[in-house]
Amino acid sequence: MDGNGRWAQEKGQDRLFGHLHGVESVRDIVEGAAELGVHFLTLYAFSTENWDRPEYEVTGLMELLINTIRKEVPTLNKNNIKLHVIGAVDMMPDYAQKALDEAIAETSTNTGLNLVMALSYSSRWEIINATKKIANDVLNGKLKPDEIDQDKYNQYLSTAAIPDPELMIRTSGEHRISNFLLYQLAYTELYFTNTLWPDFRKENLYEAIIDFQLRQRRFGKTGDQLKQDQLH
Ligand code: IPE
Ligand code: MG
Q1: Catalytic residue among 14, 28, 50, 137
Q2: Ligand 1 mean position to 50 CA, how many Å?
Q3: Does residue 143 lie within any of the structural domains?
Q4: Which atom of ligand 1 is nearest to the CA of 1?
Q5: Which of 81, 88, 188, 194 could bridge across to 173 with cysteines, CB 3.0–4.6 Å?
Q6: Count of the separate structural domains present in the chain
């Protein structure tokens, strides 16, 4: 979700004004994804690197995030949406951790859309974290180096219970991954749009999904092999 700051600056407003409007897009996209029957939607809401922004923006973002999550729990429950969080949540203020724990617990029995918030998240943090845990398990004799394969490695990532994304959308005209799910995006279709996040609504999501549906996903195979696979 990128472009909140530029959206606000274009209007001569403070960056936090952009974040406030970005929340409207989050509401619309979460609702749209749930209506379409999407099983997993991951929103990159706050990166490890975002901690280095000016203090007033970090504080403003934290408060907005937490107030929104608190306020939206009844709607999440109404729409059968289960909340998850990935990231270094222990870096967040206590009040934020508490609010997140509560929202996760209150939505834990929902069976529809899994809404994953990436908070204080970065892929390099996650990969290093996984490596540390693996090293410890090897040291403690719980794991043998030979047992480490893709399935095993996956269990050490914060996305252990979440399938790899099929489609990644980045708004605001930037063509970068910026430390987002680097390992998990290996075969993900990437979609970039110039639309700034506060302007991104259901119709824009549909456009991205239609674009995705027109692509041929070969996973390293040839086009002919895929045709053969479809016949069987
Ligand atoms: C994305 O918008 C929102 C967050 C990082 C939380 P930005 O704040 O990065 O907006 P730009 O890139 O400055 O326009
Ligand atoms: Mg940005």
Answers
A1: 50
A2: 9
A3: yes
A4: 1
A5: 194
A6: 1
